[in-house]
Amino acid sequence: MKKAIALFILVATCLYSAPFSFGEGQGMRLLAPSPLKRVGVRFLGPLDKAFEALKIHDYFTAKELFEKSAKKEPAGAYYGLSLIFANDKNPFHNLDSALAAIAKSNQAFALLDEKDKKKLAELAVTSTAIETQKQEVFRLAFEEVNKVNTVEHCEWFLAGFKEAPQLNEVVKLRNHLAYLNAEKEGTYQAFKAYMDKYPAAEDLIVATEKYELTLYETLTASKSIQSYIDFLKQYPKTTYRKEAENKIYELSITKGKIKEYHEFIKKYPDNHNVPEAWRKIYSIYTADSNPESFADFRLEYPDYPYKDQVLKDLEIAKSRYYPAVRDKKWGYVNGNGKVVIAFEYDWCEPFTEGIAEVGRADKAGFINKKGEAIVPLQYSEVEPFHDGFAVVGNEEFYGMVDYTGKVVVPLKYDEVFDFSEGLARVMLGDKYGFVNKSGVLAIPLLFDDAEDFSENRAVVEFNNKKGYIDKTGNIVIPYDFDDAESFKDGLARVEKDGFYGLISKAGEPIVQCEYDEIGAFSEGLAVVVKTEKYGYVDKNGQVVIPVVYDFRFDQALPELAFKNGKAPATLKGKTGVIDKTGKELISAQFEDIGTFSEGLLAVKKKGKWGYIDSTQKTIIKFEFEFAGNFSEGLARVKRSDKFGYIDAKGLTQTPSIFDEAGDFTNGIAKVSQAGKLGFINKSNAYVIPCEIDEAGSPMEGDVVLLKKNRKMAYFNLKNGNYIWREAGYIAE
Question: The pTM is what?
Answer without folding.
Answer: 0.58
